[in-house]
Automatic annotation (TrEMBL):
It comes from Trichonephila inaurata madagascariensis. One of its GO terms (cellular component) is peroxisome. This is Fatty acyl-CoA reductase. InterPro entries: FAR, FAR_C, FAR_NAD-bd, NAD(P)-bd_dom_sf. It is an enzyme of class 1 (oxidoreductase).
Amino acid sequence: MHRSNEGVVFHSARELHKLHTNVHQHDGSLVDLNTKSVELNLLGTQRVLQLCQKMTKLAAFVHVSTAYSYCNRKEIDEIVYPEKIPPQKIIDIAEWMDESMLQKILPKLMDGRPTTYHYSKALAEHILAKEGANLPIALVRPSIVTAAFKEPMPGWVDGVNGPSTFIIMTGKGLLRTMLVYKGSVVDWMPVDMVVNLLLTTAWHIGTHRPSGIKVYNCTSGDLNRVTWSDIHSTATPIIVQYPSLGVLRYPGGSFKSHPFLNTLSIKLCHGLPAYLVDALAWIFGYKTEFVSLVRRMERAAGYLEYFTTREWKFRCDNLIELREMQNSTDRKIFDFDIRPVEWTPYLVSYVRGIRKFLLKEDDSTLPVARRRINRLYYAELLAKLSAVLGVIYLLLTKTRLSQHLLWYFISLSFQVMQHLPESWLTFLT
């Protein structure tokens, strides 16, 4: 027995033939958005495929890809699309080429994709389609995987991705603006529904043995539409109702549909407060970390912009067909039908799940958190009122023109009231 560089354990050919594996699910991949993901995701898939080809009793091989492997297309069907360069050539290049040189040429190879992760997942699909044509293979392409709908419990979540980052940063009061085009759809799937689809797919491939590679787009956009604007308007009140103990500012802000307005808002609502807070922290001898925190948040929002400013149409014919093949019992146990899900209750469980499982704050801390967020609300209200009154005071006391204008409007108001009908004056008083 020996171990390869990618962490896949290989046995001798004789031992592999004795394996009793019936179903193999491959979801291992490097999600870091860098050049290493190309080499490791491709080699990992290739070597797992070689392992499965030696399994004499293999009934189903289910590979987890991503719905955004072909995000350079507007409409994505349940097929493997052709690529300009064969995967093996990319593997060969990655093995000998210097990292800095590879970083320069990869953007040209990715054909409009935002990251090497999405490109490598598309190439991995090609490896399976070409080298695994003799195996019972299915590809499942989830979109953004989010908190559980039902199992193991509503709201369960153990990783941070786009929507989770949005909820956490909004809940802390840090995220005040994001570039989101009007009507941009959030395509997401609860993690338990993704798992249920994987299990059902393995059953279908193992029992029906369809010809060719079966592809399932595990997406929600065309089946149960929800937009980023819907999430913002729905989630913000929920976040206020279930606040985090670590809230730094009362949640607020808005989405911007114009890049210039969003950039300006970032400078005013993110950058300026961060530098002011760190300056005060430095003066009083505390650790300055607010600017670095905001920069990390902006980097995460920057990755998300690709998806908040675009929209895709995912065909889900195979997904719906598989759902219709389930009997009534399996539909309840292995539920992956996103169509009847109501998003508002789901967002409540999502926000509470993030609070409990990611931020490690149980419900017993809610009274303290709610008192804190109420204080922040009135503090921000007082600060805004003070700023407005300060501007008015400066205008009235520092410029002669403003004084004349003020007295002009006061005298004009009295003149207008003198000419009002008596019935109006009675009503006003």
